[in-house]
Amino acid sequence: MAFLKNGRRKKLASPSEMYDYFQLGSDASFTNFESAIFNLLRRQPESSEISKLFPRVDNPRSLPMSISENFIEWRGSVQIDSIAQNIMNKKKNLVRNRIIGLLPLGPFPDTIDVEYLLDMIANWMSCFFMGYRVQCLPQVTVKQFPHVTTRYHSKTRKFQILSPSLMKNALNYVNEREPKYECLIVLSWHDLYPEDKMNFELGQGSSLHRCAVMFRKIRAQKLRRKPARFAHPNTQTHLAVSKRVVKVSAHEVCHVFGLKHCNQFHCLMNGSCSIDQAMNQPLLLCPSCLRKLKHFTKANIEHWFVGVRIFLSSVLKKYPDFPQLQDCVNWLDRIVDFAQISALTSSSNDVPLTLS
User: Which residues pair with 159 in a beta bridge?
Assistant: First the structure.
């Protein structure tokens, strides 16, 4: 039996209160807007209006590489990763300056406006991970990583780079010159592969190394025989590249910050086994992953939704033939409208939700 310091009996939490605690944590203090979003993590009827905006996964086991992990379990795993980081880097000062480095690994074809592509990724990362700045680094080639592991695929004969090896070499290369980044993103035009028995991967993020790598994976026919005039950003080539990097960069950097593959809702952090499956997944996060995003960025989720909508709308003006992006903007309008109405209809005497 538990007692407080004054001798009074401590009130035990009910099962529903314990459920809320594990989903949201004891340090949760939310605005009314955020409460409207995070309330989906509580037990609610599936017929509720907001549940239609965040559809749950019918069969979580059907998603590849997914893990069922509530907020408290996730926070514990992040703390373990942080301890491992300190052990690995005991002779170095770990950087916590909220700066993300973006390193292009070329050479890139003439059909790609590299400056425009990097600028788009930098703006997207600054928007998605509010409070973080992104700095673009000078382009490098594989020759500048003499110890990186590479191969030619046995069937396709394509040149490929081992992702974990690339992360390690890129980090060493950058840290020798300007070790000031909390997170490093490597954008590669070469194919990547995670291990010998695997063909390729779109990207990989490591919370232990604080590094993410990704590559474009555009079908060869989309890049053939393109004259110089196609170097302008408003092209089908750039549209195809943009679809990849916008989704893959956010997914992999979320891994860097400790998010695992999600199996609660249809979400950007769902696992995938193919390019088509990855590209058909939602572009944004579910309530469960948004709660984790708020934990490490400390961002106001209402500001996050508005900022993401502004960025995606600007991309949509350049690429009007991007139906998935238009659907995403329409969805953002609906969720912001619903959450704002929920906040306005709550009592004026309400205080921000706090779980204890």
Answer: 152
